[in-house]
Amino acid sequence: MSLPRLFRTALLLALLTACNSRQNDSATTDPTAPPATTRPAAAPADSPGAWYRQYRGLLPGAADSITLQLQAWPRFTNDSESAGVTGSYAGPDGQPFDLNGDYGIRHAPDSLVLIDYNPEHLAEGAQSGPVWRLHRQGRELTGTVNGQPVRLREARPLGSLQLISKFYADSVAAFPSRAGSPHAQLRLLALQPAGLATGLLRDNLLRHLRGDTLENQPAPALDELWQQRLAAYAKDYRLDAGERQQDMAGDSLPGYALRYDEQQLMHVYWNQAPLLSIGYFSYGYTGGAHGSYGTRVVSYDTRTGRPLPYEAIFRPEAKPQLVALLDRAARRQLRLAPNAPLEGPLFVPHLPATHNVYLTSGGAVFVYSPYEIASFAQGEIRLFLPFSELRPLLQPDLPVGTAADMAGPQ
């Protein structure tokens, strides 16, 4: 939908509202008429083609069940910048593993292909790990993982939240009055908790989607947030397009140079009381060899609706010990000897204790963006530290990390 159409739709809705208002103002009240009944509010619903589900079952050759967080959303025609599906799964130890959609496959609504790129699951020299080929059949997922049959069943773990998926997408013309103008794409995938007891959590999710770091501003309405983001993006894109055209000194700017793309997608990494852990994924392409991306992660205490930032998780004196633990975890992931230097495979001699961290029932995951500690080709680097290693470093009032949560790998 183009911007002019958006504005026409908004104007039409405003006119209809005004007409209804005038009709209501001129209506007379019949004192003998029965009292009007209020129609119950419609139950929250996913946007068409967007959804989030949880599944449980056994992976081939495994003795313990896993919980899979699975999401899907629509893709544009000929879309090469969004896979339209993502997932994350974990076993009893609480260590999550991400699954990425295949950008080269346009999956049917009920057929999904995901690829495991986790270093722990890559064969020596391989670029990718096991492939998940799944088909939705009612409340079940059937298919294969690494060529072996698998069957997972939809389930909602005790204390997990129902999350509604809302998807927005639009395109913006660089030169609206010019035929054949190049366009930029903008899309937003948001998650909203259902239920009356999630007000503060819902507000904080919206604040963090907007980019707020504090709770002192009113939470935006999701539709308004999208309209604001679309208007700001259209303005910036057209300014940039105009400047780039001027820099060509009379030559025509090739259309592909302005095929920008921007995405903000909320991903679920953990959803079981007392935690909800969300990734705010951002991607932007403004020309060049590739786009830039990163994920800002936040955990929430579902009992209060409040976020759990680094300072709420770790004691102030924890940093030196965290660095040592992260160094050890990085060597394990990179399959290095215990005393091998990290600088070389990475950009840094020691892993910084990043504040970009989220929690599961079994530990903490530290997330590093591309170029932060390694090359772009290495992607986001995620390091899991189990509570069995972290317990002395945790804040005493943290809702997880007790002795019952310390069954992580040694």
Automatic annotation (TrEMBL):
It comes from Hymenobacter jeollabukensis. This is DUF3298 and DUF4163 domain-containing protein. Residues 27-46 have a biased composition (Low complexity). Residues 23-48 are annotated as: Disordered. Residues 1-23 form the signal peptide. Residues 312-388 form the DUF3298 domain. The lineage of its organism: Bacteria, Pseudomonadati, Bacteroidota, Cytophagia, Cytophagales. InterPro entries: DUF3298 (IPR021729), PdaC/RsiV-like_sf (IPR037126). Pfam families: DUF3298. Keywords: Signal.
